[in-house]
Amino acid sequence: MPVEAPLSRLTGRLRGTGIGARLARGTLWSMASAVVARGLGLVGAMLAARLLGVEAFGQVGVVQQTVATLGTLAGLGVGATASRFIAASRATRPAETSRILGTTAAWSWGAALLAGALLYALAPWLAAVPLGAPALATPLRMAVPLLVFSLVAQAQTGALAGFEAFRASALSGLVGGVAGVPLQLLGAWQAGVPGFVLGLAAAEALRWAVGARALAGEMRRHGLAWARPQAADLRRLLGFGVPTMLAGLLVGPVQLACLAIVGHQSAGYGEVGLFQATQQFRNLLIFVAVQSASAVVPVLAAAHGAGDHAGLARGLRKAALWSVGASLLLGLPLALLAPWAMGGFGAAFAGHASLLVWLAVLAPVQALNAVGSSALSAVDRPWALLTATALFAVGALAIVLALPTALGLVLSQGLASVPACAWMAWSLRREGRG
């Protein structure tokens, strides 16, 4: 009985309607889905690598990265856009929400079909020239349905988040993840790389189908129907989506440039290897902050749309405290166990435990950066988000140029987050005042 009472109080609080309870529910569902999906993905990748071999498995990685890049360019941030605008309008402006649903659906399907057609047409050139592997032409063409369903599922996930249907979104991801492993392995066994890619596409199509049913249920529950897209709504959504997409695109190339700067030094790729080892722990330290983003955007956007500035400020404080607290809680034991943690990668890594200590010290700033980015999206400040990302990029490059080592790479992620967080705090300062 003493154990059941606290559990029942905790369950009751999670079922509440306050901002804190809604943020907690969304974060927990997102974390559960991510843990299971990533775990299954890791198992599937290991088994597929055994079936395909090293070279073929490398080709799969290239195809997936190509699809991810094209999806980012074609999608123009449609998922985050749908989440933000549906959350802000669903309670008070149902007609606007119906138009947003129709506009994002038309946008995502149009962009997906256009991107798919371009990938099919350009596959031989992409394989032969930029990738230098003509044999990849067929797998790239087999990836067209993967690209299409990935884009429309991204918009659908954003729409579900806008309704705060976190459970339904998590379940659709889990269905795709559970079904994906046998589909991918069957494809790899029967047809090699093209078969594996088709297995990925089939899993993504299944995820979309489950999500479509869930979204239809949310629309019925809110008394909404699909409305014809309007040019004014599309311009408004693109005004948010384009800078959001640019912010997302800015990070990858800068990180790649930082790695290239270090790699060009004497024994540089040894330093890059040390840094890559630390990244396995970085993802753990900021896991809560990253997963909370799917809840922060719709919950804070709903408060912003309703003019609830006090609730918005309260939710932002809670999300920041949870994320920073989790990074500190995980970072302290990591710093204490750093010599053993780095030694797990091999003798060559064991003498560089200080890298993990610095990582643990700077992780809370990176957690704040993730929460602040989500908050700027929630309050419709995409250009402020792009500016914060640019500040981070410039700072990271400056640090790595001054210290082109593994330590410089670790410091670049944490220290470059400081000016970005300061800009975010300045941009958000009026939102909590009303």
Strand-helix topology:
Layout: H1 4-14, H2 19-52, H3 54-75, H4 78-89, H5 94-128, H6 137-142, H7 144-162, H8 166-221, H9 231-263, H10 268-285, H11 287-305, H12 309-336, H13 338-343, H14 347-350, H15 354-378, H16 382-402, H17 406-415, H18 417-428
Helix pairs in contact: 2-3, 2-8, 2-11, 3-5, 3-7, 3-8, 4-5, 4-7, 4-9, 4-11, 5-7, 7-8, 9-10, 9-16, 10-15, 10-17, 11-12, 11-15, 12-15, 15-17, 15-18, 16-17, 16-18
Comma- or semicolon-separated keywords:
434 residues, mainly alpha, 2 domains, 18 helices, 85% helix, globular
Description:
It is a single chain. Helices cover 85% and strands 0% of the residues. The chain has 18 helices and no strands. The termini are far apart.
Tell me what portion of residues adopts beta-strand conformation: under 5%
Classify the helix fraction into a percent range: over 70%
SSE run: HHHHHHHHHHHHHHHHHH
Average of pLDDT: 82
Task: Tell me the Rg in angstroms.
Answer: 22 Å
- Assign the structural class, choosing from mainly alpha, mainly beta, alpha/beta, alpha+beta, or little secondary structure: mainly alpha
Number of structural domains: 2
Count of DSSP strands? 0
Shape: globular
Task: Please provide a brief summary of the model.
By secondary structure, this protein is mainly alpha-helical.
